[in-house]
Design goal:
The complex is a heterotrimer of chains A (367), B (323) and C (593). Chain A has 367 residues and is mostly helical. Chain A has a single domain, classed as ABC transporter involved in vitamin B12 uptake, BtuC, CATH 1.10.3470. Chain A has 16 helices and 4 strands. Chain A has helices at residues 2-7, 10-22, 30-49, 56-81, 89-104, 109-132, 138-157, 167-174, 183-201, 203-213, 215-220, 225-251, 262-272, 284-303, 310-327, 355-361; strands at 162-163, 176-177, 181-182, 253-254. With 323 residues, chain B is mainly alpha-helical. Chain B has one domain: ABC transporter involved in vitamin B12 uptake, BtuC, CATH 1.10.3470. In chain B, the strands form 2 sheets. A two-stranded antiparallel sheet of chain B has the order 1-4. In chain B, a hairpin with a 3-residue loop joins β2 (159-160) and β3. The longest helix of chain B is centred in the C-terminal third of the chain and has 27 residues, at 208-234. Chain C is of the alpha/beta class and 593 residues long. In chain C, strands 6-9-10-3-11-12 form a 6-stranded mixed beta sheet, sandwiched between helices. In chain C, α8 (252-260) packs across α9 (270-292). Chain C starts with 27 loop residues before the first strand and ends with a helix. The chains are: A mainly alpha (367), B mainly alpha (323), C alpha/beta (593). At the A-B interface, α6, α7, α11, α12 and α13 of A face α5, α6, α11, α12 and α14 of B.
């Protein structure tokens, strides 16, 4: 083992050891470059144009904004790496806290939290069953459950917002450590840590990446792909339930539509962070940075006194910029028209169906 | 040819949608005779027409194995611009042209982002969804714009010959044109080829860029048309028009039998699915079920339709591929 | 070489004909083509000349530069140096479309047909006949049907191509070239997925095209086909042109030597291999012809091997290589297995440490039989017994749990994970397989049994720690023993050559410590050197007591590896033959009937 390293330049050997001991590999691959650059650029601009950004109170707000989207995006990252999607998170973000508050609105904070998470788990189970037993592609399945869960949330709450009064939940949603680091952010860090462990240190994580890389090979190779997807939907549901109750704590209310477009936002965060929609590989660090980026944009716009509606425009521009930056240079092609001439195989730029969906329909029919 | 078409329709994956639509109609008619009133049926037809038009454009996009998530925003922006211009006194004809041009232009932008910058369609249209929504909000500043032009409204809801709303005629025309494009022009076949096997399409010398841009322009046109019709129908326009319309459009296409993996498109199925959705909404309304249940039913149908489809395909397929 | 039948249809297919062979101007001439990728030169000044009405074969090992050359000629790549002349005029193709318009058509190994479109839509893809922008489908349909029937295929033009077999799809693609008017046809490994009949049909088509004046470049590693069909042959090795000769001036042995260069010492007797290949060809063609008048031959089969009547396998046959001490139940036993309409009444036995071969043409059920043994195909009736215990293998993971490891024939889509590095690909099942085995004293000690079951369950959820150090050790030892060449363990597996990828999969197999190995085409897409290493590895596995089933289209491979060979035809086992007592012709005859 060590003999290999001996042959190598001592610096490289040390670097290799460092890489292995740190565990997760902190690298700066092309895909993540976008978030780093944009973050850096924004922070510099804000330093000049809106120095109030750098006050403790403001940072606290930004961290809080990052946290909730980040928690959902963490689960989404893992799912996308396996080649699936969860479009129903928007509805789960509403339904889980609504159920929790409806059932245990006067109860303890712990019971509210648990109920929300468990509801998320239950909804994730439904997603998982529809996909694995119902054999429906994840994209479409979660599209359907998006509608169904959203409707149930509306029905239970009768279209109203339920009030959250439990002090623990309120504190979790709004409070912070030292007036700087919100509890929700700490929870987000923990979530990301767990996801990292899952992906890099547990067998399930390897199965996730294998399934995302080549679903058929994973199945043939003896991986229980059905279980993998099921587990991931449950995890995503749990995390979304958690995020939902935190959001409700922040808003002091549980409303069916309290997280509009979260599904697409979360996917945007994942993609901007550098994870490929095709699956097989991904970066949690990138997702976290991207969640932070979006929060900074939203906050920065307010500080700069810009009409908050510009935020939507800014979001779109950021997504595009981040992806362009991730492609440029070192072999990346911005103009993919030159197919074949350069000798490299270009990615299918139009391909959007996640591999799981493809796996359903593209198997040759028996003739 | 009619025989061939009908055989294809029934054998196609959209049999579920067609049957479901018919079933729903029958069911609701039996439950409550009010379902079959002129007013109600007209309402269904108008709603179905509007969502069918966007759905038809989206069908081509999905046949090309891509997605356009910005259709909802395009709908909204077209409606808002139209309302704005009408308020300024611009003649109706010009307003319509302007609205449609906006749709085409936005579609062009989508196409360019995807082809020139090589962005996956999901991401590119996600970005434009957001940007266009921002523009909508900046124009309206969150307010509602009222349209006072009666002609505009009449354009959509008048009945021709006493029984067919104009909207349906428009939808039928769009269906005819899109069908012709998809099945009878090289462009349309190239759309399907790209979705079926992009490598083969490249090898056959198809201009991927041109076809992509063309498709997104087309769906932008359809979305704008739907938006204009919605604005005309509602007479009050704000930024919530078209909200989540993209997801509904995708659902309609999928229930209609078009597969997300691309390569083929079931236009007739899309129309039927649009009708199904409208019928459900109206039907639930008529039997006094809260509109909050609409999504539940539609989502349920979506899932069931696809499960049925999956089972049908599964029994044909050998091997035990999992999901 | 004249067409083999009295075709009334040496008829004009509408192809742009050129002058007879030997005319002054070659259809396509490439001079001193050079190409580099990432600074590595893969083609060093190669010349190729294609003449009208002639089939020119291009042979070489994997990685010799054949694909690059094809891509250069067809406009997919641009040469770094050298030039190309089409009919005497220098040309430069900016993209494949330009090449196609100039009359160069390529039938790639991975077919370029759109499965969701119909036959007629595929045939006219990119060149649809239109009037005022609307496609004239009726016209197109007629032409497509005509062209296809002239090529030997009667197809419904409105049928989706995806529903057709590979051989038919290939003809659709050829039809696409034909209607597009072409002068040069490049075919890359066209027969890799075809059975004997389909190959013959393809050859008829190629000969017809040749007679029409098309210049054909036929790229294949199947030398017997090359020497059957081609007029001239070019050998490349390591990006260099070794020689270009007319077929009459050379032979298979010389070609093999030229392909392998210094490595030819690995193949013990090149001449012998060449002779074997020629015999194989002759026997196969005889068999194919016999198909047409099969009746008198069937009775001969019964007398085929003196003293050894073909049996449908009984597990107790006097096979000389059965390990002594037959007291242990066989590692794998299939009894009366039926599966769908594809497999009927299969009886098969494999003992520990035995290598058993499975021979059969494409479509005979060989692949399906392997699938039943590894959990990919449902068994309708009959039993599968592993070590005497009946097993229901409903999914691959169940097969793995029973110690059956399968290597698929298509490693790209069913074997390797492109996003994972080499080590992760290799250690994939390392822990999982271990997890299914009960602790030794499970039967006697209920607590241990319960704990064992709990541990198994937990392992199944995957929420268990990856043992990085153990994996690294295992990987290193596997890599060394199999000779996998990769620069770093965390290199992307896609950077490895075909042979090394296959070895990586063998390493994966080894690490699961299987009881049974089911190998489908274990040396497909593997160069000769790695092939030998893999054979050695298989011998090694057998030596460790693993029961091995090898399914292959190459009889010589089966003869090299297996002590016993089952022949499957039309879903039934029609013969079981011991290596010493059988010959390749015999096996081929059983295969073809």
């Amino acid at each position: 083992m060590k003999d290999d390293a001996v042959q190598v330049d001592s610096n490289r050997a040390r670097l290799a050891v460092l890489k292995h001991t740190i565990g997760g590999r902190m690298r700066f691959p092309r895909e993540r470059r976008g978030v780093w650059i944009l973050n850096a650029a924004l922070l510099v601009v804000l330093a000049f144009e809106a120095p109030t950004f750098y006050t403790a109170g403001n940072i606290e707000t930004v961290l809080g904004d990052t946290a909730i989207l980040g928690i959902v995006a963490a689960g989404m990252t893992v799912l996308i790496m396996a080649g699936a999607f969860d479009l129903s998170v928007t509805s789960i973000m509403g339904l889980a806290p609504i159920v929790a508050v409806s059932v245990a609105g006067d109860g303890s904070g712990l019971s509210l939290l648990l109920l929300s998470v468990l509801t998320g788990v239950g909804l994730g189970v439904v997603n998982g069953l529809v996909v694995t037993r119902g054999r429906v592609a994840p994209f479409v399945a979660t599209l359907g459950t998006l509608f169904v869960f959203g409707s149930i949330a509306d029905i239970i709450s009768k279209g109203n917002a339920l009030v959250v009064t439990n002090p623990t939940v309120l504190r979790l949603g709004t409070g912070s450590v030292g007036q700087l680091v919100p509890y929700s952010f700490l929870i987000m860090i923990a979530v990301f840590g767990m996801c990292h462990v899952l992906l890099r240190r547990l067998h399930l994580g390897r199965w996730v990446r294998a399934a995302g890389s080549n679903l058929r090979a994973a199945h043939v190779g003896g991986i229980d792909v059905r279980w993998v997807y099921f587990a991931l939907f449950v995890i995503s549901g749990a995390l979304t339930g958690l995020a939902g109750i935190l959001l409700s704590g922040y808003l002091s209310s549980a409303d069916a539509t309290q997280a509009p477009n979260y599904n697409l936002n979360a996917i945007a965060v994942v993609v901007v962070g550098g994870t490929s929609l095709r699956g097989g590989e991904g970066t949690l660090v990138g997702t976290a940075l991207a969640a932070w980026l979006f929060a900074v944009v939203g906050n920065g716009l307010v500080l700069l006194g810009v009409n908050s509606y510009w935020q939507y425009v800014a979001t779109g521009i950021i997504v595009i910029l981040a992806l362009i930056l991730g492609k440029v240079g070192f072999g990346g092609e911005i103009w993919p028209r030159r197919r074949g001439i350069s000798g490299g195989a270009p990615p299918q730029s139009l391909d959007v169906a996640p591999t799981a969906a493809a796996a359903v329909d593209s198997a040759p029919s028996d003739v | 040819m009619i025989l061939r078409t009908s055989k294809r329709v029934l054998a196609a994956d959209s049999a579920a949608a067609v049957i479901a639509a018919a079933g729903v109609f029958v069911a609701f008619s039996l439950i409550n005779s009010h379902f079959l009133t002129r007013l109600n049926i007209d309402g269904i037809i108008v709603a179905a027409s509007i969502s069918a038009i966007t759905g038809l454009g989206m069908t081509l996009v999905i046949a090309m194995r891509a997605l356009d998530l910005s259709v909802g925003s395009i709908m909204g922006l077209a409606a808002i611009i139209a309302a704005h211009l009408l308020g300024e006194g611009v003649p109706l004809g010009l307003v319509i042209i302007a609205g449609l041009a906006v749709g085409c232009g936005l579609g062009l932008i989508n196409g360019l982002l995807i082809t020139m910058l090589g962005l996956p369609s999901f991401v590119a249209t996600l970005a434009t969804l957001s940007m266009i929504l921002g523009v909508e909000l900046l124009i309206t500043q969150g307010q509602t714009i009222s349209i006072h032009n009666i002609g505009f409204n009449k354009l959509v809801v008048t009945n021709i010959g006493g029984f067919l709303p104009v909207a349906a005629v428009v939808a039928a025309a769009v269906f005819a044109v899109v069908w012709l494009i998809f099945h009878r022009t090289p462009f349309g076949r190239h759309v399907a080829a790209i979705g079926g096997d992009e490598r083969a399409a490249v090898g056959a010398g198809i201009n991927i860029m041109a076809v992509t841009i063309g498709t997104f322009v087309l769906v932008g046109f359809c979305a704008a048309l739907s938006g204009l019709m919605t604005g005309a129908q509602l007479q009050n326009v704000d930024s919530t028009i078209g909200a989540n319309a993209e997801l509904t459009a995708i659902a309609v296409v999928v229930v209609g039998g078009t597969s997300l993996t691309g390569g083929r498109g079931n236009l007739f199925g899309t129309v039927c699915a649009a009708g199904l959705l409208a019928a459900i909404e109206a039907g639930l309304n008529v039997v006094n079920v809260s509109s909050l249940y609409d999504d539940l039913v539609f989502g349920g149908i979506l899932i069931i339709a696809l499960m049925v489809d999956g089972l049908r395909r599964g029994s044909r397929r050998r091997g035990t591929l999992v999901t | 070489m004249a067409p083999t039948e009295e075709d009334p249809l040496v008829a004009d297919l509408g192809v742009k004909g050129e002058e007879a062979p030997g005319a002054a101007v070659p259809a396509l001439r490439a001079s001193r083509l050079c190409k580099s990728f990432d600074g590595v030169e893969v083609l060093h000044g190669v010349d190729v000349e294609l003449r009208s009405g002639e089939v020119h074969a291009l042979v070489g090992e994997n990685g010799a530069g054949k694909s690059t050359l094809i891509n250069l000629l067809s406009g997919r790549l641009r040469p770094d140096a050298g030039h190309v002349e089409l009919n005497g005029q220098p040309v430069e193709f900016r993209n494949p479309l330009a090449a196609r318009r100039a009359g160069i058509s390529v039938i790639a190994q991975e077919l370029e047909v759109v499965p969701t479109l119909t036959v007629v839509e595929n045939v006219f893809l990119g060149s649809e006949p239109t009037k005022f922008g609307i496609v004239r489908w009726r016209d197109a349909r007629r032409r497509a049907v005509n062209t296809l029937s002239e090529l030997g295929l009667d197809a419904d033009p409105d049928r989706a191509v995806g529903a057709m077999g590979v051989a038919d799809q290939q003809l659709v693609e050829i039809a696409k070239a034909v209607v597009g008017q072409f002068g040069v046809l490049i075919m890359d490994e066209p027969t890799s997925a075809l059975n004997l009949e389909e190959v013959e049909r393809l050859f008829r088509v190629v000969r017809r095209l040749k007679a029409d004046g098309v210049a054909v470049l036929y790229v294949s590693h199947r030398l017997w086909e090359v020497f059957d069909l081609a007029d001239r042959v070019t050998v490349v090795r390591d990006g260099n042109l070794i020689f270009t000769k007319s077929i009459a001036e050379t032979n298979i042995g010389a070609a093999i030597r030229a392909m392998l260069g210094s490595k030819s010492s690995l193949v013990t007797d090149v001449a012998q291999v060449g002779r074997e290949i020629e015999r194989e060809v002759a026997a196969a063609r005889q068999g194919a012809h016999r198909n047409e008048s099969s009746v008198p031959e069937r009775s001969e089969m019964g007398r085929a091997a003196p003293g050894r009547a073909p049996r449908s396998g009984d597990g107790q046959g006097p096979v000389s290589d059965t390990p002594e001490g037959n007291k242990r139940p066989p590692a794998v036993e299939l009894e009366g297995v039926h599966s769908g309409s594809l497999l009927s009444d299969i009886n098969l036995t494999v003992h520990d440490g035995e290598v058993v071969g499975l021979a059969g043409v494409l479509g005979s059920g060989r692949t399906e039989l392997c699938e039943t043994m590894c959990g990919l195909r449902k068994v309708d009736t009959g039993t599968i017994r592993l070590r005497g215990v009946r097993a229901r293998l409903r999914e691959p993971k169940e097969a793995l749990a029973h110690g059956v490891f399968a290597l698929s024939e298509d490693r790209k889509s069913e074997g390797i994970f492109g996003h994972l590095d080499v080590r992760e690909n290799v250690v994939l099942n390392f822990d999982a397989a271990r997890g299914e085995r009960m602790p030794a004293d499970a039967a006697s000690n209920p607590v241990r049994a319960w704990a064992g079951k709990a541990a198994v369950l937990i392992r199944k959820t995957g929420l268990t720690w990856v043992r990085a150090r153990a994996e690294r050790r295992a990987f290193d030892s596997a890599r060394a023993s199999l000779g996998i060449r990769c620069s770093r363990p965390d290199e992307r597996i896609t950077a490895l050559s075909g042979g090394n990828q296959q070895k990586a999969l063998f390493a994966r197999a080894a690490l699961t410590r299987p009881a049974v190995l089911v190998l489908s085409e274990p040396t497909r897409g593997v160069d000769v050197g790695a092939k030998e290493e893999i054979y050695t590895a298989i011998d090694g596995f057998a030596g460790e007591g693993i029961a091995i089933i090898v399914s292959s289209a190459e009889i010589s491979e089966l003869m090299r590896l297996a002590a016993r060979i089952y022949v499957i035809r039309n879903g039934r086992i029609v013969a079981q033959v011991a290596r010493e007592e059988a010959s390749e012709e015999q096996i081929l005859r059983y295969m073809a009937g």
